[in-house]
């Protein structure tokens, strides 16, 4: 699948400022802030969209978080290997296609293309590997065969299920006990009440063909992948085991990230990711943001109404990535005012020390991607006089490199 074109990320070394510090991030599995120590290229997997309502502000907030992580890594001197999937065949997509009378493949491609254009406008670093579920079916089948060889697969009718208790460490990501898992499993794509399963939490690996639904001929029979297995297969293929970070929204902690980790661990005998990082949920004026409620705030709609994409980016940066927060229309207005103030400040012939701004921006990002703290650094600089004649150039480049904001 075609990715989008990455923005050029400037290096701050040309100012004689060296490299940024090691990056710390909150690891969901250990419930602690950990220091990331990539060996060679930093390896990142972020779960992508199911393309039927792209790109709302919750999507954008999640991908911005991991864009910041990449920028902090690059500034610290690491190359980055970034993989993101697209779940371009799954029940929600098929249901939307049926409801709207649109071919499912056309719906997936149109929404994926919209997502690409939004990511480009927001200056998000593109993944080197942007991989669809459909193009990964051979990888999925191979991984299921490996799981079967490990004794972790069983059949219910013509469908194949993963025995989650084949992984002695099942639950390591979410920290939930079984009752907590069962409480949300059915709400997030699971089928705990299906007759014939060994355990209610066992998850679907391969779904046999259903009338009117897409299916592919494989050694497993004619059908299509379950949800979790695609991310296991794609990540292993492009990043290998023991990669640095698996990321996504906090709604993916369980079951999605729990299941994908366990499937990989059972198949390979190796750790899946070293850290699991999750972005908070974005609501709308006190409610969950969802298509069914008709309250999605779309990046494309904001752009079409004339809002500068950099103001949209600043509106997102105003919230810590792990926080749950609510979108109000004032968010974009405040961000527009902030952007104008920053642009006016870099037009000055001199200002406070640009080197100090770089130091403080780096420190904010290195401490669990604290974007709100970084914005305060810049707000203070913009409102203060100084005599550093190269400050505007240094600060502009730093904002571009570290926060992805082009002035």
Key words describing this protein structure:
five-stranded parallel beta sheet, Rossmann fold, single chain, 407 residues
Brief synopsis:
The chain is α/β, with parallel strands linked by helices and 407 residues long. 41% of the residues lie in helices and 17% in strands. It has helices at residues 57-75, 91-100, 104-121, 137-149, 178-185, 227-239, 253-268, 299-304, 309-317, 330-345, 354-366, 371-382, 391-403, and strands at residues 24-27, 32-35, 42-46, 80-86, 129-132, 153-156, 159-162, 203-208, 216-218, 221-225, 243-249, 273-279, 282-284, 287-288, 325-327.
Q: Describe it for me?
A:
The protein is α/β, with parallel strands linked by helices and 407 residues long. The chain has a domain of 264 residues: Rossmann fold (3-Layer(aba) Sandwich). The chain has 13 helices and 15 strands. It has a five-stranded parallel β-sheet with strand order 5-4-3-11-12, with helices on both faces. A five-stranded antiparallel β-sheet has the order 6-7-8-10-9.
Write the layout of secondary structure elements.
Blueprint: E1 24-27, E2 32-35, E3 42-46, H1 57-75, E4 80-86, H2 91-100, H3 104-121, E5 129-132, H4 137-149, E6 153-156, E7 159-162, H5 178-185, E8 203-208, E9 216-218, E10 221-225, H6 227-239, E11 243-249, H7 253-268, E12 273-279, E13 282-284, E14 287-288, H8 299-304, H9 309-317, E15 325-327, H10 330-345, H11 354-366, H12 371-382, H13 391-403
Parallel strand pairs: 3-4, 3-11, 4-5, 11-12, 13-15
Antiparallel strand pairs: 1-2, 6-7, 7-8, 8-10, 9-10, 13-14
Helix pairs in contact: 4-6, 4-7, 6-7, 9-10, 10-12, 11-12, 11-13
């Amino acid at each position: 699948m075609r990715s989008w074109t990455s923005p050029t990320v400037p290096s701050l070394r040309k100012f004689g400022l060296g490299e940024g510090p090691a990056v710390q991030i909150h690891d969901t599995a250990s419930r602690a802030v950990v220091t990331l120590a990539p060996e060679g290229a930093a390896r990142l997997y972020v779960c992508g969209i199911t393309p039927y309502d792209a790109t709302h502000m919750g999507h954008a907030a999640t991908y911005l978080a991991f864009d910041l992580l990449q920028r902090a890594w690059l500034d610290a001197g690491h190359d980055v290997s970034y993989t993101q999937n697209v779940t371009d065949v799954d029940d929600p997509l098929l249901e939307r296609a049926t409801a709207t009378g649109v071919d499912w493949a056309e719906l997936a491609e149109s929404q994926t293309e919209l997502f690409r254009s939004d990511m480009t406008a927001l200056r998000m670093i593109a993944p080197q590997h942007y991989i669809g579920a459909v193009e990964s079916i051979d990888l999925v089948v191979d991984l299921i065969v490996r799981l079967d060889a490990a004794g972790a697969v069983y059949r219910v009718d013509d469908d194949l299920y993963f025995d989650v208790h084949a992984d002695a460490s099942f639950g390591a990501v979410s920290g939930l006990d079984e009752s907590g898992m069962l409480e949300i499993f059915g709400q997030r794509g699971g089928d705990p009440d299906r007759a014939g399963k060994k355990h209610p939490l066992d998850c679907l690996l391969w779904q046999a063909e259903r009338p009117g639904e897409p299916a592919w001929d494989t050694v497993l029979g004619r059908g299509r992948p379950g949800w979790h297995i695609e991310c296991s297969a794609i990540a292993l293929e492009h990043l290998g085991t023991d990669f640095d970070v698996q990321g996504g929204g906090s709604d993916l902690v369980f079951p999605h990230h729990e299941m994908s980790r366990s499937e990989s661990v059972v198949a390979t005998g190796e750790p899946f990711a070293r850290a699991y990082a999750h972005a908070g949920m974005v609501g709308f004026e006190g409610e969950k943001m969802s298509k069914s409620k008709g309250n999605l705030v779309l990046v494309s709609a904001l752009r079409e109404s004339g809002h500068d994409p950099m103001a949209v980016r600043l509106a997102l940066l105003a919230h810590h990535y792990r926080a749950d927060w609510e979108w109000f229309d004032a968010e974009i207005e405040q961000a527009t005012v902030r952007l104008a103030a920053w642009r006016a400040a870099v037009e000055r012939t001199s200002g406070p020390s640009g080197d100090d701004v770089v130091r403080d921006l780096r420190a904010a990002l290195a401490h669990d991607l604290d974007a709100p703290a970084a914005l305060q650094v810049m707000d203070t600089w913009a409102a203060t006089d100084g005599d550093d004649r190269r400050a505007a150039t240094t600060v502009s480049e730093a904002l571009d490199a570290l926060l992805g904001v082009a002035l």
